[in-house]
Design a protein that fits this description.
Layout lengths: L8 H33 L5 H10 L1 H17 L6 H18 L6 H20 L3 H30 L3 H11 L9 H45 L6 H7 L1
Helix pairs in contact: 1-2, 1-3, 4-5, 5-6, 5-8, 6-8
Length: 239
């Protein structure tokens, strides 16, 4: 299992930066959307109150960073996967909303999940067969969520005049046909292609992350075993 000693200083800093930003960002969005939902469905609030609620959300996130950040970074690669999936889903909702359903941010998030899976398995020092299983599971998760979320967006997009006009020009069919079975089939094909692309990107990102980590560990090991690569002081001591 990994610990902080197995992380390089650079990696420790990067993980700390990512986790440190992630916590206030999620609490900010949670407070913002809660206030906005209350405004829309319960009681109308002044715009300034919604802004104040969103900014107030930064406080709990920053407080959590102060108390738990170092512990979270130390346990980053040994955390319970269920909690990591919850965090992934939280960021997925944010990315989905920021890009208005267009699968750009969500796809990049899937690549990040693949990198995390590869680094996690490298810290656990698993063999390639177990790595393949872990990356396959991560890829199935990210590609399934990305493609399923894109399905209703694609169906609703067919109702947009601009989208229907573009499809009419590309496929040479009357736009009215895209409102029926042909439209559903077309969206299904696009989502299937998105599934395959996300699956491949997630797995490749995980493999690359694992390979880079393996090369770094191998070089460090060889440097420690080769007396010519040691410092002059170390060589003098050996003599």
């Amino acid at each position: 299992m990994s610990d902080t000693n197995e992380m390089s200083k650079l990696e420790f800093a990067i993980v700390g930066l990512v986790v440190g930003i992630a916590c206030p960002l999620l609490t900010f969005v949670a407070f913002w959307w809660t206030a906005a939902s209350f405004h829309l469905y319960v009681l109308r609030l002044p715009t300034g109150m919604i802004v104040t609620a969103a900014l107030a959300g930064l406080g709990p996130g920053c407080l959590l960073d102060v108390v738990f950040l170092r512990r979270w970074v130390e346990k980053f690669y040994t955390a319970n996967l269920r909690w990591m999936i919850v965090v992934y889903l939280g960021f997925f909702v944010v990315a989905f909303a920021c890009f208005m359903g267009f699968p750009v941010g969500t796809s990049l998030l899937g690549v990040g999940a693949g990198i995390y899976a590869g680094r996690r398995e490298s810290h656990r020092k698993v063999d390639r067969s177990r790595l393949a299983v872990a990356l396959r599971r991560a890829a199935v998760l990210t590609s399934s969520i990305t493609s399923v979320a894109a399905l209703p967006v694609g169906i609703l997009g067919l109702r947009e005049p601009g989208v229907a006009k573009w499809l009419e020009a590309v496929f040479g069919l009357d736009r009215s046909r895209f409102y029926g079975t042909a439209g559903f089939v077309l969206v299904g094909v696009f989502c299937s292609v998105l599934f395959v692309m996300q699956y491949w990107c997630t797995r490749m990102a995980g493999r690359l992350a694992f390979r880079i980590a393996s090369v770094r560990v191998t070089k460090a090991t060889l440097t420690g075993l080769n007396p010519l690569r040691r410092s002059p002081a170390a060589n003098v001591r050996r003599l």
